[in-house]
Amino acid sequence: MNKDNLKAWLQASRLPFFVATFIPLFIGWFLAIRQTGQINPVRFTLVLIASLIVHLITNLANDYFDHSVGTDAGKSIGGSRVIQEGKISPEVMLKVIVILYAIAFVISVVIVLGFQLYLLAIPVLFAAFSSYCYVAPPIRYGYHGLGELFVGINMGPIMVAGTYWVIAGQPSCLSALVSIPVGLMVALILFYQSLPDMQTDLAAKKYTLAVKLGEKNALYVLILFFIFIYLSISALIIIKALSLFGLLFCFSIPLCIKLIRIVFTTEDFLLLDQYGKYVRIIYFICGLAIIAGILL
């Protein structure tokens, strides 16, 4: 693989968004260590590799299937743009998607059967199904305003509680509770990223949640996301699921206020794309706060 090909695949992977996978996995792992004293690095490594592969598959499948119906064509800024820019052909991308699914399947079988966690197969299959059907026909739930719901479930409860389950050997209600703000934050990332593409998504008949809400209502829902995220973390501290170190999430509030001001004063939603990093930074700060609340 030459340098240009490597750059193309790195662009297709959308690495900055992988923080959305690392945070829930480490939260689930550290929570299991705190509750059971079991570290199980081999189990965690397998979960980490499988989860990163599924995240990558989701990104590539999003590019491939959106391209197949022209959703990312024209002025759209969605996706990685590697197909539109001629850096990776759709045929090659599809082959890579199939290979990655096979690898993720093998790792999942090792986890479920090798560690005798048979009921874990249910959330694993749900995650695999959701990853493929996000924009793939015939379901394409991402085209019907359900993207935030499924992404929130997959990268919140399934990743946090699932990681805990693999490490501890059994599920936990506590891990499910701790996963709530995580799921909300990942859903927020997806919701915000859909704002700049509202017009092009509508033209392509991709009815994301933001498109269904309309510009004005979408802005208010953005605020509600932040409110529920901060309230859910605070609730975890109140019930002592997290220590007072969980209050470190407050360091993200100034950035949150800044982002809301930007969103409400920006007339051209296309310009919001350049501020998406703020949402990821807020997520990173809150994720670290939750980890601190678990460990300290």
Describe this entry's structure for a reader.
The chain has one domain (3-295). It has helices spanning 3-13, 19-36, 41-69, 90-114, 121-133, 147-168, 173-194, 198-203, 209-213, 215-238, 253-265, 276-295. Helix content is 70%, strand content 0%.
Mean of all residue-level pLDDT scores: 91
Q: Termini separation (Å)?
A: 44 Å
Largest sheet: none
Total helical elements? 12
Residues in helices, as a percent range: over 70%
For the record, the count of structural domains works out to 1
What brief labels describe this structure?
single chain, 296 residues, 12 helices, mainly alpha
Write the layout of secondary structure elements.
Blueprint lengths: L2 H11 L5 H18 L4 H29 L20 H25 L6 H13 L13 H22 L4 H22 L3 H6 L5 H5 L1 H24 L14 H13 L10 H20 L1
Helix pairs in contact: 2-3, 2-6, 2-7, 2-12, 3-4, 3-6, 5-6, 6-7, 7-10, 7-12, 10-11
Summarize the structure.
It contains 12 helices and no strands.
